[in-house]
Amino acid sequence: MDGLIDQAKSRIWNIVNEVSSYKSNGQNVTLEIALYEYGNTAFSPSSNYIKQLVPLTSDLDLISQNLFGIKTNGGEEYCGAVIYQSINDLGWSKNPSDLKMIYIAGNEPFNQGPIDYKSVMKNAKEKSIYINTIYCGPYNQGKTEFWFDGAQEGNGDYFAIDSDQKIQQVTTPYDAEINNYNDSLNKTYIGYGIKGNEKKMNQSKQDENAASAAPSILAERTIVKSKKSYNNASWDLVDAVELDGKDISEIKEEELPEEFKGKSDEEKKKMIEQKVLEREKYQEKINKLAVDRNEYIEKEKLKVANSKTIDDFGSSINKSIESKAKSNGFEKIKL
Question: Is domain 2-165+310-332 annotated with CATH 3.40.50.410?
Answer without folding.
Answer: yes
